[in-house]
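It is worth pausing here to work through a concrete case rather than discussing structure prediction in the abstract. The textbook approach is simple: state the sequence, then state the predicted structure, then interpret. We follow exactly that order.
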Amino acid sequence: MLRRLVIPALWLLMPGVGAQSVDLLADTAFQRGLQVKDRAGRLTEIRWDKQAAPPVWHTAQHHSKSSFADPAYQQLTARGFHFKDPWQLLRIHPDDVAADFVCGINGSAEFGGQWRAKGDPWPHLYLEQKISAPGGHLGQNAPSLAALARLDFAIALKLLHDQRPESSQRNIHTHAAQFLFFLTVQNLNRQSKGYGDYYWFGLNLYDDRKPLTTLYAAQDKGSAKKKGTDKFIYSPGLDAFTKQIVGKGDWVPVSGDLLPHILTGLRESWQRGYLADSHELADYKLGGAVLGWEVTGLNDVAIAGKGLRAEAILKPAGRP
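Step two, the predicted structure:
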């Protein structure tokens, strides 16, 4: 994994300077390619610009019948990558919509037209990247939460379609289509007893069950058929970041400062007994990011996105 040191190094070496910023997400224009896994679990790279730096984005297709590594459904273009099989689609810089990416899942095909039972696994389509060490593009130089004044997030989304059969078998507690953005808020101080522990902070950007998503705070529990992480999940409502409804099919800008919500989620984690080995803000960094679909119903869905950004604004040196 490429490790780069740009703005954080300047901030560390220049005490007394004003607040500076660092991009927490690399390659938000999706120019460097993708790392994908084939059906045997082997990593392979998909590159459309051979001169670009190595890919920082990984794909994950948990519990899916699809594999982006399948060459029968791949098409490389001068600007990106197109993939579509019966189960999932992923297009980087598509030709027919002004977007950085389009991704989707055909839940009916994934589930063979049968409504999922409670506890059964469901297909995912994730774009993921590591931010901090170990393995992240910022390495050890990623800023801690204690160093942040703000964390400005932005993305624009357009729902292209969401089609599902109407049926009395549909249960809104079991069957849904959700497009999510998540960060791991992780203890990455190697001297801390709680090193490696984390909670999930996320934005539910689209949920077919409600116009604007609301606060969700709970443990990530699994089942006998699908393992969970058992970590705490904290997801504030989307109304703090947009008043528009993604489900109407227009381009919707979603933006705002994530930091106060991340800190609220951290305090809630501590109050509920999670991350008990450290209550020091300086121990916690953003470990990694996940963007994509989870479809538990028979929805055939696709969404376009552009302008992804997560910019950490650092406190001026010497300021608590």
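Step three, interpretation. The chain is about 10% helix and 35% strand. Confidence is low (pLDDT under 50) at residues 1-18.
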